[in-house]
Amino acid sequence: DVKVTQSSRYLVKRTGEKVFLECVQDMDHENMFWYRQDPGLGLRLIYFSYDVKMKEKGDIPEGYSVSREKKERFSLILESASTNQTSMYLCASSPGGGGANVLTFGAGSRLTVL
Amino acid sequence: AQSVTQPDIHITVSEGASLELRCNYSYGATPYLFWYVQSPGQGLQLLLKYFSGDTLVQGIKGFEAEFKRSQSSFNLRKPSVHWSDAAEYFCAVGISGGGADGLTFGKGTHLIIQP
């Protein structure tokens, strides 16, 4: 069964800490995404990557960075966590090629920043 | 830019009753349309998708959706809901040639099932 695995389901961090959220997919997908989910706001795209070492800003990249050193792994980094970054973070991947593709999601990482 | 509107934040339906969740999109060309479901504490699971062809598409768990270009809508339906259908439902739109750009999601509809 194809999978997107997010290593941490629940994290509690303090303001100012550096936070790493890891995502691994085993489907050999070219595209990977990080979304943030908040009640009443739905899913908002933070960053995406269409190839190793390539990254593009989504709709809300401020306060975040990403890293994709290997095809299967896409990391989201909060350089200095703030309370307004308390949220559910969802990683997804999709195959390459033209057209819109089906996204496969991980189970999510719920981050609380105190 | 494309956008998605789900007009209903919450919907309550009795078990066994029919269901329709509304979705309207804004995009200049023919979009790619999706419905995803999210159970509590989980990620999103694809219910169904429309890329082209027959405007009535069948999905998993007995769901179907109909693409209506004239109304810019892609409403999700189920003839008889089960208690296990209680979840958050998201409509999403993708654009042609935009595979690497991901999808644009609506804000979701929370479905409550009454016994």
Largest sheet composition of chain B: 6 strands, mixed
Number of strands of chain A: 11
| β-strand number of chain B | 12
Which percent range describes the beta-strand content of chain B? over 45%
Give a structural overview.
The complex is a heterodimer of chains A (114) and B (115). Chain A has strands at residues 4-6, 10-13, 19-25, 31-38, 42-49, 56-57, 65-70, 73-78, 87-94, 104-105, 109-113. Chain A starts with a strand and ends with a strand. In chain A, strands 2, 4, 5, 6, 9, 10 and 11 form a seven-stranded mixed β-sheet that branches. Chain A has a four-stranded antiparallel β-sheet with strand order 1-3-8-7, with no helix packed on it. In chain A, a hairpin with a 2-residue loop joins strand 7 and strand 8. Chain A is an all-beta fold and 114 residues long. By secondary structure, chain B is mainly beta. Chain B is globular, with a radius of gyration of 14 Å. In chain B, a hairpin with a 4-residue loop joins strand 8 (64-68) and strand 9 (73-78). Chain A binds chain B through residues 4, 30-31, 33, 35, 40-43, 45, 48, 50, 56, 58, 90, 92, 94-108, and chain B through 9, 31-32, 34, 36, 41-46, 49, 51, 90, 93-108.
Question: What tags apply to this protein structure?
Answer:
heterodimer, A: 114 residues, mainly beta, seven-stranded mixed beta sheet, four-stranded antiparallel beta sheet, 11 strands, B: 115 residues, six-stranded mixed beta sheet
Gist?
The complex is a heterodimer of chains A (114) and B (115). With 114 residues, chain A is mostly beta strands.
Could you outline the blueprint of secondary structure elements for this entry?
The complex is a heterodimer of chains A (114) and B (115).
Chain A: E1 4-6, E2 10-13, E3 19-25, E4 31-38, E5 42-49, E6 56-57, E7 65-70, E8 73-78, E9 87-94, E10 104-105, E11 109-113
Parallel strand pairs in A: 2-11
Antiparallel strand pairs in A: 1-3, 3-8, 4-5, 4-9, 5-6, 7-8, 9-10, 9-11
Chain B: E1 3-5, E2 10-14, E3 19-21, E4 24-26, E5 32-38, E6 44-50, E7 56-58, E8 64-68, E9 73-78, E10 87-94, E11 104-105, E12 109-114
